[in-house]
Write a structure and sequence with these properties.
- The protein has 555 residues and is α+β, with helices and mostly antiparallel strands.
- The protein folds into 2 domains: 1-78 and 106-169 and 218-288 and 508-555, FAD/NAD(P)-binding domain (3-Layer(bba) Sandwich), CATH 3.50.50; 170-216 and 316-417 and 447-483, no CATH class.
- 25% of the residues lie in helices and 20% in strands.
- It is built from 13 helices and 25 strands.
- It has helices at residues 15-26, 52-56, 61-68, 154-168, 179-190, 209-212, 220-224, 292-299, 325-329, 331-334, 339-357, 450-470, 534-551; strands at residues 2-5, 8-11, 30-34, 70-71, 118-119, 144-145, 148-149, 170-171, 197-198, 201-205, 215-217, 238-242, 245-254, 260-269, 277-280, 283-286, 316-323, 376-379, 388-392, 410-416, 426-434, 440-445, 471-473, 480-481, 517-519.
- The strands form 8 sheets. Strands 9, 17, 18, 19, 20, 23 and 24 form a 7-stranded antiparallel β-sheet that branches. A 5-stranded parallel β-sheet has the order 12-3-2-16-25, covered by helices on one side.
- Helix 1 (15-26) runs parallel beside helix 13.
- The longest helix has 21 residues, at 450-470.
- The protein is globular and about 85 Å long.
- The two termini are 27 Å apart.
């Protein structure tokens, strides 16, 4: 038997849960964090892309991402496998209605599904392999809708954004001097795409940058700070993280005023299901993801009218280009405004030409030195253009790069659109079908409006115009819309608001009617988003921490 007596239990170990933990421990409170996933790194929640291998060849990281994405709802498919050996076992699905094959969801309609939506079960969550883009939400596009203001006022949000940016080591300068980056930016500026600028990223320079050609990507460990080291003992407060411990239920009681309170939790040690785990806490924070958080509330009997509703997700267009020969031929001229980068490229070209003339094997025809970092640019979403554009080079669960095309020549274009909150767009949870972890199976009900679909057409047109300035399309990565859910930016399912009839939590992230239960994560965003949501989610958590501190005894 294991017993833990703490001030705060945090369920979920991504950057948002990490923000809660760090700030509460710094205030002198005892914190226990649990996650159903395994610990994959020495420190808690490191970005796996910081590995030497993936720094040298980022394309290899795509298989890591795919391996860590666990699909949330797979529509049932009972089509016969006509080429199967006829002597193999088979059954008639009409005679076995409701049989769930390979974790498929018989309640899921294919047309309404977010088929690529997935969870990452690991300490650090999705941040173990995320792209690290951390822009702020646009004040009038994403923090305002239909005349309704954001639940947290603009002055407060500006302050919270600064604090969240510091926790994530947000930077716009790490890639800004790269010749590859500057070439792409210059080409697009000359083509009158003047709003292209440096993409805000959670990343920092490495001390050995000159030797390693590497950077350090932020993740949950960055937000945790010294708490990420399992050996670290805080000078005040305390912190412990239990991997592969799953919270399956919040136990509630009701007071004389009709308000509820979490009095305990059911926790399973997934490494030893015979062990009894007891957790006593004053405050409970659930910061899993936008599907797993409402799933836990549903399993606990907290089934408000808004739970799982107002779901938003971003339609997404993608392509990869291979830089034009003409741009590479003129690279020295195009970099004229950037003398340091120009000199590096010019010197490299001359050195390679000399090798070629001397017939030295391995002369490089690509004009970029191997140490030049990839481009990282963006076009922010604005009213009238409700999509966020990333022009960069990274690894994804899609867009394979063939080995006979030099990766330095490839530029990825990812355009993220918007959907707006509607009660009809939702995730529901089954009362009889369970997922892999024994929790209520989620089912998506999601459609875009006519106007949102029209915006997708305009977004694709815009992406193709930008791409045309850079080069031809990579075979297999021509302009395309990706499977719904693939951005992994679901929001709204635990919506924040000032009206409890249309939201799940108040502006302090406290669940309506439950005195000591707080939520965190992308599910809280109330209006939909074009930009990446993590920075705003961390900012919301920092607001919530102040409320939690006010109801806990002083640390």
């Amino acid at each position: 038997m294991s017993r833990y007596d703490v001030d705060v239990l945090i369920v979920g170990s991504g950057p948002v849960g990490a923000a809660f933990a760090r700030k509460l421990v710094e205030s002198g409170h005892s914190v226990l964090m649990i996650d159903a996933g395994a610990q994959l790194s020495g420190n808690y929640g490191e970005h796996l892309k910081n590995s030497f291998l993936y720094q040298k060849n980022v394309d290899l990281f795509a298989s890591v991402i795919r391996g860590h994405l666990h699909p949330l709802s797979i529509a049932a498919d009972d089509s016969p496998v006509v080429t199967l050996d006829p002597s193999s076992f088979s059954f008639d699905p009409e005679q076995w209605p409701g049989f769930v094959l390979n974790n498929q969801n018989p309640e899921q309609k294919k047309r309404d599904n977010l088929g690529a939506s997935a969870a990452t079960y690991a300490v650090g969550g999705m941040a173990t392999h995320w792209t690290c883009a951390v822009p702020e939400f646009h004040a009038t596009l994403e923090r305002s809708y239909n005349g309704e203001a954001y639940p947290i006022d603009s002055t407060t949000m500006d302050k919270l954004y600064k604090e969240a940016a510091a926790l994530l080591h947000r930077s716009e300068t790490v890639f800004a001097s790269s010749a590859r980056h500057l070439l792409v930016r210059e080409v697009l500026h000359r083509a009158q795409f003047t709003t292209v600028k440096e993409l805000p990223l959670a990343v920092r320079e490495r001390a050995d940058r000159a030797k390693s050609d590497a950077v350090h990507w932020s993740a949950a460990d960055t937000v945790l700070g010294p708490l990420a080291d399992p050996r670290h003992a805080p000078t005040q407060g305390s912190f412990r993280l239990l991997p592969e411990h799953q919270c399956t239920k919040l136990e509630l009681s009701e007071d004389d005023n009709g308000d509820q309170r979490v009095t305990g939790v059911k926790v399973r040690n997934l490494r030893d299901l015979n062990e009894k785990v007891t957790v006593n806490a004053e405050v409970f924070v659930v910061a899993c993801n936008p599907v797993l958080t409402p799933q836990l509330l549903f399993a606990s009997g907290l089934r408000s009218e808004s739970l799982g509703r107002y779901l938003t997700e971003q339609p997404m267009a993608f392509c990869q280009t291979v830089l034009k020969q003409s741009l590479l031929d003129e690279v020295v001229t195009l970099l004229a405004k950037y003398p340091d980068a120009q000199k590096r490229v010019k010197d490299y070209i001359q050195k390679q030409k000399q090798k070629q003339e001397e017939k030295v094997p391995g002369a490089d025809p690509v004009p970029f030195p191997k140490g030049e970092l990839e481009p990282n640019l963006w076009i922010p979403a604005v009213p009238g253009q409700p999509w966020h554009c990333q022009i960069h080079r990274d690894a994804f669960s899609y867009g394979e790069v063939p080995p006979n095309i030099d990766s330095r020549l490839i530029v990825d274009l990812r355009w993220f659109g918007m959907s707006r909150p509607r009660r009809s767009n939702r995730v529901t949870f089954s009362t009889h079908i369970k997922d892999t972890f024994g929790m209520p199976q989620p089912t998506f009900h999601f459609q875009l409006t006519k106007e949102e679909r029209a915006d997708c057409g305009r977004m694709m047109e815009h992406m193709m115009k930008v791409a045309a300035q850079l080069g031809g399309f990579m075979p297999g990565s021509e302009p395309q819309f990706l499977t719904p859910g693939l951005p992994l930016h679901i929001a709204g399912t635990t919506r924040m608001g000032k009206d409890r009839s249309t939201s799940v939590v108040d502006p302090n992230s406290q669940v309506w009617g439950v005195k000591n239960l707080f939520l965190g994560g992308n599910g809280l965003h109330p209006f939909g988003n074009a930009a990446n949501p993590t920075l705003t989610s961390v900012a919301m958590a920092l607001q919530s921490v102040e409320k939690i501190k006010s109801i806990l005894p002083s640390g």
